[in-house]
C-alpha cells in the first residue's frame, strides 16, 4: 500500500505540474474563439438591433443607451477574446466576460418566472423551453461558459501565456504561493460567484456577498 500511494502521489504531482501548462490553454482557446466570433458578428451589424434595444437589462446597465450597451458588449467580446487567446491580463478579461455572460443570462436566457429549483432547471437547455405558454429559459451554453471562465479568473492563463512571460520578465514568479488560511483569498472566492448569483438568484447571492465582506474584515476584528 505504501508503494502504491507513493507512486500515486508522484503521478498526481506531475499531473498537477503539467496542468499548469495544459489545463488553462484549452479553456482559453475555446473561449477566445467563441467570444471573439460573437463580438465580430456584432461588429458587422449596422446600428443597434431592435431585439437588443428592447431588452430589459439589470442595473446599472439599464441606465445606459442601448447603443452604448451594444458597443460595450461587442468590443468586450472582441478584445477579451484576443486577450484570452494570448493569455494577456487573463484574470481581468475573464471577469469582464463573466459579467457579460451573467447579464446575457439575466436579460435573455433566464426564465420569466420560476417557483422552485426543479422548475428553474427546466431552462438548462440549448433550445428555448416554453411550457404552458411561459418561457422557461435556455441558459445551458452561457452557464457552461461561466463554469469555464471561473477557473481562468482564479487561476490565470497558465504557463503558456503572456501573463507568465510578464511575471518572468519582471522577476515576480515568487507571487505564486499557498494561500490556505488567507481570509482575503476566501473573500475573493465568495465575491465572484456572489456577484453572479446576485443577478441570477438574489436570495443566494446577497448572503454570499455578505459573507465575502465579513471574511474581508474578519482579520481586523481578531486583532
Polypeptide structure, described:
This protein is mostly helical and 223 residues long. The protein folds into 2 domains: 2-176, no CATH class; 180-223. Helix content is 70%, strand content 3%. The protein is built from 9 helices and 2 strands. It has a two-stranded antiparallel sheet. β1 and β2 form a beta hairpin. The longest helix has 42 residues, at 2-43. The protein is globular. The termini are far apart. The mean pLDDT is 87.
Question: In sequence order, what are the helices and strands, one letter per element?
Answer: HHHHHEEHHHH
Can you give the mean pLDDT? 87
Task: Please report which band the strand proportion falls in: under 5%, 5-15%, 15-25%, 25-35%, 35-45% or over 45%.
Answer: under 5%
| Low-confidence runs of at least 5 consecutive residues | none
Could you say which structural class the secondary elements and strand pairing correspond to?
Answer: mainly alpha
Assign a percent range to the helix content.
55-70%
Strand order of the largest sheet: 1-2
Largest sheet: 2 strands, antiparallel
How far apart the termini lie comes to 46 Å
Please compute the radius of gyration using only Cα atoms.
20 Å
* Overall morphology: globular
Count of distinct structural domains? 2
Number of H/I helices: 9
Number of DSSP E strands: 2
Give structural attributes.
single chain; 223 residues; mainly alpha; two-stranded antiparallel ribbon; 2 strands
In short:
The protein is mainly α and 223 residues long. It contains nine helices and two strands; from the N terminus they run αααααββαααα.
